[in-house]
Amino acid sequence: MTMGFQKVIFIFAIAISSSVVAVEPDEVLDNPSLEERARQISKDLRCLVCQNESIDESDAALARDLRVLVRERLQIGDSNKEVVQFVVDRYGEFVLLRPRIDGVNYVLWWFGPLFLIFSIITAVIYVRKLRKISNSSNDLSAPLNDEERKKLNEIMGD
Q1: Which of 58, 76, 79, 144 could form a disulfide linkage to 63, CB 3.0–4.6 angstroms apart?
Q2: Domain shared by 112 and 90, yes or no
Q3: Whole-structure pTM over 0.85, yes or no?
């Protein structure tokens, strides 16, 4: 095999291994429908240790505890929404990979776009004022009239 082909295989192997889920065999539920629900919920919950992965993908001990908790709540008979709400009540909204858009979160969701619009409006107003100042300064470069020329000669001592 050539060196280039080996590199391609290596990169492909890394890409495949990174998409492996971290659910351990002892966590998997016997009921396939409950297990499917648990996986769906786990994909939407953030690992509080890794912060960039779902608990379904994370190998962290806390992620494992959360996966077990999700499965326990499902076995008790909670709905998907109840399980998610239970975890949010316990750990806060940060645990959601896709934060809700409601209540106080509206401020966070809309602050960026509104600040961008405000910045654009401010920049447009500033540029217009600069243009007015620039246009009025063009009047200073106009030729001197007779009276201005006399004053200039007096100042210059001519």
Answers
A1: 58
A2: no
A3: no
- 3-state secondary structure (DSSP) of residue 54: strand
End position of a domain, from candidates 67, 95, 123: 95
The answer to whether residues 12 and 68 belong to one domain is yes
Q: How many domains does the chain have?
A: 2
Are 72 and 30 in a shared domain?
Answer: yes
Counting other chains too, the contacts that 43-52 makes at CB distance below 8 Å and 24 or more residues apart are 43/97, 44/84, 44/96, 44/97, 44/98, 45/70, 45/84, 45/87, 45/95, 45/96, 45/97, 46/94, 46/95, 46/96, 46/97, 48/91, 48/94, 48/95
Structural domain boundaries enclosing 11: 3-95
Could you read off the pLDDT tens digit of each residue along the chain, which spans 158 residues?
566 667 667 666 655 554 445 666 667 777 888 889 999 999 999 988 887 888 888 888 888 889 999 999 999 999 999 999 999 999 888 898 887 777 777 787 888 999 999 999 999 999 999 888 777 666 666 778 899 889 989 998 86
